Amino acid sequence: MAGTRSGGKKYKFKSSGSAKQGKSQKRLKQNSDDEVEEQLSTLVFDDYWSLIWKRIPSERIEGCVYYHPLSFRSYLTEKSVKKLKKWVSRHKVFSSRYVFIPMCQSNHWNMLIICNIGEDMNSKTNSPCMFLLDSLQIGEATRLEPRLREFVFHLYESGNRKESAEEIFNIPYNIPSIPQQEDGTKCGYYMLFYMFKFLTACPYQFDISKDYPGFVSSYLLAFCNLYVPNLCNDL
């Protein structure tokens, strides 16, 4: 699979977690030297994420999976769940603690986090819930909800789950108050920073009775306000 950056030049693409650091560093340097392209491309976003993943202790990323943004785009355009089924099976999604789904829609990055995806829908502590992180809350996050709920339904369908459509479409969905970007180009960096900070602090088992919906807002507001001014350097 190939990604295309400004100027029409194509780069061979490797899935998240498999990119070699040397090639990633080279692309990241080229991106930082490109003054025209301030907004992160999908390719460079994945390179950054691969490097971030390596910086996080293994015990923190245990049980966490990442759906590639190009795969999400393919799901939306092809209207097919065939590839989704393969991903669900290969990565044992329904045994995961957290599922991260970054997406770039209308030139803006958002990220869906699904917690407790394989747990009992009726549990008072460990039932599934979702957060949509948006660094530019101007209504797009709300408009995305029907499309994302349909995607989550197809996730469950791909895993041959027994939960009913009504249960799946009623999984709690929250758009937390989090630090907002001050320009129109840094949304990709904000998403990477949110992901990094979430992974370094999230509870091993997300307790919906205690952590939903306040954990994301309180943690990211407290810590991102300290680091966001220099987030590009931190990444």
Which terms summarize this structure?
protease; alpha/beta; Adenoviral Proteinase, Chain; Ubiquitin-like protease family profile domain-containing protein; five-stranded mixed beta sheet; Peptidase_C48_C; two-stranded antiparallel sheet; hydrolase; Papain-like_cys_pep_sf; 235 residues
Instruction: Please report the total strand number as a whole number.
Output: 7
**Number of domains as seen in the coordinates:** 1
Helical content (DSSP H or I, runs of 4+): 40-55%
Query: What percentage of the residues does DSSP assign to strands (E)?
Result: 5-15%
Could you tell me the radius of gyration in angstroms?
Answer: 17 Å
Can you offer a commentary on this structure?
This protein has 235 residues and is of the alpha/beta class. It has one domain: 3-Layer(aba) Sandwich (Adenoviral Proteinase, Chain). The chain contains eleven helices and seven strands. It has helices at 21-33, 42-55, 58-61, 69-78, 82-90, 140-158, 165-169, 187-201, 208-211, 214-227, 231-234, and strands at 2-4, 10-12, 64-66, 98-105, 108-115, 129-134, 173-174. It is globular. Residues 1-21 and 24-37 have low confidence and may be disordered. Belongs to the peptidase C48 family. One of its GO terms (molecular function) is cysteine-type peptidase activity.
